[in-house]
Amino acid sequence: MPGEPPPRVVVAGGHSAGHIEPAMNFADALRRLEPTAEITALGTVRGLDTTLVPARGYPLELIPPAPLPRKLNRALLQTPGRLRDSVRAAEIVLDRVRAEVVVGFGGYVAMPAYLAAHRQGLPIVVHEANARPGVANRLAARMTTHVFTAAPSVRLAHATAIGIPLRPAITGLDRPVLRDAARRRFGLRPDGPVLMVTGGSQGAHSINAAVSGAAAALRATGVQVLHITGPQHVVGAPDRDPADPPYVVVPFVDEMQYAYAAADFVICRSGAMTCAELAAVGLPAAYVPLPLRGGEQRLNAEPVVAAGGALLVDDGDLDPAWIETTLIPVLTDPERIAAMSTHASAAGTPDADLILARRVLAAVAEQRSTASRGLE
Fold this sequence. Notes:
Layout: E1 8-12, H1 17-33, E2 38-43, H2 49-55, E3 60-62, H3 74-77, H4 81-97, E4 101-104, H5 110-120, E5 124-128, H6 135-140, E6 146-149, E7 159-161, H7 168-171, H8 175-186, E8 194-198, H9 205-213, H10 215-220, E9 224-228, E10 247-250, H11 256-262, E11 265-268, H12 272-281, E12 285-287, H13 296-306, E13 310-312, H14 320-331, H15 334-346, H16 352-375
Helix pairs in contact: 1-16, 4-5, 8-11, 9-14, 12-15
């Protein structure tokens, strides 16, 4: 916006990493397009906001948390006093930073932000990363036409599918170029298939138990393993002869692009961000949806599974026998892995961050134009 004041944007995507990460990726993209943009994040003390947001370099304003029922029912209509307090706190923040637009990603923080923006006549932009929208975004979609989703199948009013905002380190990853360095980084061999195992930031006991239980079978077929256990469900590295394929166990990985570059295949949960990142880098996967919340994670994985880029296994069916009879034949078939990688890439949308940033800048420009006409 040459010659104009910097856009003033409030981002509401707090509490969980699944809401915070796409919000911060969007904010980074907005800064790339408009380096002077003034971006403020709303959050609460209940979630990961106070850890993840400052680490990305954005000012954080805290408001009281206002958890809501997940369904549009009578409990929602009986709005508790804490929601009113949270909306008032959000309005104070919007006034103080002179916000021109609110961009929400769902979660505890989004609902008060949407309601505060609506009361102040500010444009609202909604992004829904999950296959099944939460109540905050379903309500907000009735307040605005600026609604964006991860996939065309997401049912939300006025929705346009753009994908999920991701980090450039992921969307710009050239796996073949980084492969050798990435494998050296983890102590893996340059040749031979590598299975990456992860249960997300906290780990997953069922995934850890199934893969570690199949360690001998994986070793016998020449499969290397990079096992990211998470801090809560740590497993030990199995005993092995130095001549055996490496089985590397780490509690976490800070820069996931290296893990992705080292791997040929992944077994993991199917959170929205995980599915989006693996599709963006073209990694085939065996998705093990978290068996909670009515099967939301299964819905996240279904598009790439239907495209031929992934397998799907129920948490209750995952065990060492499934690894041996179903997964190992895939891991040891380079042609099938290559085909699945191509199909996974086709399901990815690597530029969602910039698309959303441009739409938000357009909303600010439209708001300014409307305000200018009102002064004439």
